[in-house]
Design brief:
- With about 325 residues, this protein is α+β, with helices and mostly antiparallel strands.
- Helices cover about 30% and strands about 25% of the residues.
- It has three domains: about 100 residues, Rossmann fold, CATH 3.40.50; about 150 residues, D-amino Acid Aminotransferase, Chain A, domain 1, CATH 3.30.470.20; about 60 residues, Dna Ligase, domain 1.
- It contains ten helices and 18 strands.
- The longest helix has 17 residues.
- The chain is globular and about 65 Å long.
Amino acid sequence: MPLPFIAVVRGGYTGESVISLQSARTMLEALDAQRFHPVYVSVSRDAWVCETVDGRALPFDRGTFTADRGNGMERFAGALIAIHGTPGEDGKLQGYLDMLGVPYQTGGVLCMAIAMSKYATTGLLRQMGFTVARSLLLHGRDAGTEQHVLEAVGLPCFVKPDGSGSSLGISKVKSADELGPALDAAFREGDTVMCEAFVQGRELTCGVLRLHGEVIALPVCEIRTDREFFDYEAKYHSDSTQELIPAPLPDEVSAEVRERSAAIYRALGCRGLVRVDHFWTGSEVVTIEVNTTPGFSPASIFPKMLKVSGIGVPRAINGLVEEMLQR
């Protein structure tokens, strides 16, 4: 009997596609070749291409999400989504797969669409009783925009594209004359921009996943960098960034971060691998962002948290695929 045919979907339509290729490779290499038959489906605006691990192209039909691995065209048994940004992190790919009846490991359309918007996510979490930073959403700018931002969130603040990841287009603004260039940079990445009040504290992140029906919060990671914040360079190119796992925190703070991260995972209806970012001010935990398809390259935090937890990457990825195929 043929092994389940698994599409590891990579690429995407944003600047995060480079990271997606690395994440997809980590996921595919973790899959048990005795149990699954994985291939890549590479997504770009120009074309969707199916290829084997060694780069051999396979016949592929985007309309039916089928490919020929040697026995004629067949629909994939499931999709392991490794796209950061659109269309894999905003619900579009999930909707397409839902219509075709192909299971996947991430949250569903609503979960992914909400979490793609930093502003919508923090607004919903605020309504649920979680502590989040003060923020403002901009759909454009005019002569009064900068003053409006200063009055709403104050300085210092962060200016972020509302729907991008890997810290692309994000600026820390410490003075009024920095605000205009920061807004320009953010609007180059997307049509909506979130301005968020600066939170003074220690930067923390916690990975969450569901394995065999159990929601598991991984050991907390503290991020320390000599840059202004944990930006793209700090994430992927800086030798001075420290990722301390487990974070050197009081036990009760670590427990609170893990419990809150798991609660947010459940509240938003997440599935698969999710990373929740927070700051600890010394007196409270403030939630900043929910990443529903976090980076999974060798340089990314999530695989490191899995290793420290004792779960490891292979067990996590194979477990996610097992659960996915049962849906």
